[in-house]
Amino acid sequence: MAAEFCRDRVLLFCFLALLACAADGQLSPTFYSYTCPNLQSIVRSAMSQAVNKEGRMAASILRLFFHDCFVNGCDGSILLDDTSTFTGEKNAGPNANSVRGFEVIDTIKSNVEAACKATVSCADILALAARDGVVLLGGPTWTVQLGRRDATTASQSSANSNLPSPGSSLSQLISSFSSKGLSARDMTALSGSHTIGQARCATFRSHIYNDANVDASFASTRKQTCPASGGDSNLAPLDLQTPTTFDNRYYQNLVVRQGLLHSDQELFNNGSQDSLVRQYSTNAAAFSSDFAAAMVKMGNISPLTGTQGEIRLNCRKVNK
């Protein structure tokens, strides 16, 4: 009896400690250790199935997480459908016809709810899914901090004003990331997420037709499926060399002027990030380490914790 009493006291102490962490805005990797111990394996299993079905999905989920965190913090707001009381983020300029993977998050949420009802936020599920997608394509892993709660509203105007454009200059990129507490080094490392995934013709047309800092042969190849007008939704890999492998080829591409987006090539264009791009292009371990650290920092952008927000039962809509 004494042993059981002590064990219960320890569990209670741990639970109260978790609550205290959440209350003061601190995330913790062990947040669900007692309330949903199988969470990470549930998310990993579903992401494995999704990525095996379509390799591109890892990049899509990673992009969802980035676009969530940069708009009022990592609060799952990007997952909300429009309602009569607010216009959400899904159809904002940077997201319309391009953000995807919502069905995968729905599936994971359903699986998590079956195991741990009304316990795990959609924001945390998205954070875990983004990490697992990177790992599944051969990228680095990191410890995901948990304890975020979900927003009860979303803002299309915030999405339009907070997300960097594919036409951004280097100074605009540095400023955009700095406003979220991320350094220029973090920005350059996080841009390496473009080693996977695809982009729409509309986002890189101006770069391949109008910019001088682009390899002519590369531009010619891209023009074959991205005409000067029309074909806006035609896709091209962000990394032509290994589009479904998370590696450092993105930076190697930049060094030879084969960045797909204007904003990509801005990282290597006789500017402040040239030396770091060169380092990442030859040192995959340095890139992996910096990327993992920057992902943790990005995941810490203005989370809702404690009694803020809610634990959504359906990631697409607020609880009634």
Automatic annotation (TrEMBL):
SUPFAM superfamilies: Heme-dependent peroxidases. It is found in: Secreted. The active site is at H67. Disulfide bonds join C36-C116, C69-C74, C122-C315, C201-C226. Residues 26-319 form the Plant heme peroxidase family profile domain. Removal of H(2)O(2), oxidation of toxic reductants, biosynthesis and degradation of lignin, suberization, auxin catabolism, response to environmental stresses such as wounding, pathogen attack and oxidative stress. Belongs to the peroxidase family. Classical plant (class III) peroxidase subfamily. Belongs to the peroxidase family. Ascorbate peroxidase subfamily. Heme b binds at H194. Ca(2+) 2 binds at T195, D239, T242, D247. Its main location: secreted. Substrate binds at P164. The keyword Calcium applies. GO terms for cellular component: extracellular region. PANTHER family: PEROXIDASE, PEROXIDASE 72-RELATED. This is Peroxidase. Its cofactor is Ca(2+); heme b.
